[in-house]
Amino acid sequence: MKKIFNYSVLFLLLGSIVIVQSCNLDKCHETRKYRVYNPVYMTKAQLRNIKIKEAKPLKNPGKIYVFNQYLLINELYEGVHIFDNSDKSNPANLSFISIPGNVDIAVKDGVLFADNYLDLLSFDISDPKNPKFLDSIANVFAEYKHEYETKGYRVYYEPSNVIEEIDCDDAVSDTWIREDGVLLNSYSGDPRAGSSGSSAGNISVGGSMARFTIAHNRLYAVDNSKLHVFNVESPQNPSYTNDVNIGWGIETIFPVKDKLFIGSNSGMFIFSVSDVDNPSLLSSFRHASSCDPVFVTGDIAYITLRSGTRCQGFTNQLEVVDIKDLLNPELIKTYSMDNPHGLTVLENKMVLCEGDFGAKVLEVENPEKIKTKSKIANKHFYDVIGISTEDIIMVGNDGLYQYSLDGYDLTEISTIPIEK
Which CATH code for domain 45-141+190-417? Predict the structure, then answer.
């Protein structure tokens, strides 16, 4: 995952900022367009101010999760919405759990696990209208996170688009970087990056951008450099078990049987969890530096690589990897894409989110001859969960969408829009 720099990025970016000059005999002005990311700080007390609230509208959706007939949608850095999806044409907004700093979620047997930037939290959601806070494992995600004496933790960055006119003689205006904010030269970017297993008798599935996953009565959670292991055999009494160093730039996790496929911005790592508390590296598959969700089905791993302000590099492609020999994964073929994000595969059909370019359905029966069969344009999608061809859930900047797949055509069932 790309590290965010403050003043060190300034001079690298000045050359790529949109500049329009207008001059007369006396003065010269430049119109500059850029995006500023201003830091948002929270103290420990603020991060741990957990509240159960009434349902509220969706505003800035993040990770998604399906638990039985319920939809869980992360409100970025704010908490979790719970919807009853029994009627897919009209999901009912039930409740909101306020969790400052929250990004990642997973569910086992009616217990929601969520982060608050520092801690692992658990909630009883067996009655989704009335969730109950259960427990916290403190500071398990706190390593490498600096606490500023007066401000607390820098939890995230709030973007704002800036258009301003300045004097040409003003080589470096104070408005380039405000306080300790971060200047970036693009109006695009996605803070969400970053599939979960099922419990017996339950549907419990996360998206391909997940950093939490449940497998073998364990919660496996990745941060930028570590794989954290929690015993959730008794989900109402979770316990910390182990940490495994796995390198930098870790982004996503996907479980298959007794293996974990971990996506990073430099490659895919395959871990064995035959010893559930001590994951061990089997092999890795390296690729160009880029954001990297992974989806696995059968003997094939699909890896999407994309460019963007936080994704290092300029690659936009789908890599198809043969994993029959887990110790020696081999590239089958690479396909050019627009800006691929999350993905799912159902019955040899791939639904692929393409960010600002919408989504597409591909035929993947032959990994050497993958074909695009249909597209949805004019919408933004970044992640997808495929329960069945009749139950496909996609999320993007404008809300959550539910579709059915008839052949290779996606038919919209319902939308949960954001409040603007």
Answer: 2.130.10.10
Strand intervals (E) in 273-398: 280-286, 294-297, 300-305, 317-322, 330-336, 343-346, 349-353, 359-363, 371-376, 383-388, 391-396
pLDDT tens across 149-188, in order?
899 999 999 888 888 776 666 544 433 333 333 443 333 3
Mean pLDDT of 279-295: 82
Q: Which residues pair with 374 in a beta bridge?
A: 361
Contact between residue 255 and residue 195 where contact means Cβ atoms under 8 Å apart? yes
**Is the pLDDT reported for residue 30 higher than 90?**
no
Between 200 and 102, where is the model more confident?
102
Amino acid identity of 119? D
Judge contact between 292 and 301, C-beta under 8 A. no
Sequence-distant (6+) residues with CB within 8 A of 260 are 213, 215, 220, 227, 253, 254, 270, 271, 273, 279
Q: How far apart are CA 68 and CA 77, in angstroms?
A: 25
Three-state DSSP at 13 gives helix
**Kindly report the CA angle at 394 between 215 and 47, in degrees rounded to 5?**
65
Which of 74, 72, 78, 79 lies closest to 61 in space, CA to CA?
Answer: 74
> Strand (E) positions, 17-78?
18-23, 28-42, 51-54, 61-67, 70-75
Rounded to whole angstroms, the Cα distance separating 302 from 292 reads 10
What is the pTM for the complete model shown?
Answer: 0.85
